[in-house]
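Allow me, if you will, to draw on your knowledge of protein folds for a short while. Thank you for your consideration; the sequence and its tokens are set out here:
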Amino acid sequence: MLIFTYDELSLNINRAILSIQKRKPADAHTYITKAEKIVMYLIDILDIKYPISDKLLQIYEYIYLQLIYANTYKNENTLTKILEIVTEMRATWQQAEKEIRQKF
């Protein structure tokens, strides 16, 4: 489910980038807002009892603030940088899932 959530986040960021390139700021706003909601969901589901949660929270907060910036200024470069982070995080979670499945 977490991988799917990251897929949706990436999809919305990609759509926002394309909307900015096509000079459709209203569409970009819609997709960035969806991305912001997904990041808020990721924050909400963090289980604080694990030490990694603090680091993930910092990353999610950074992504969220960058999404706000990108939405305010319709900044494609900021979205591209966020997409790179999200892509790396997705790959990390996917690898962790594979390792867990191999153990069981």
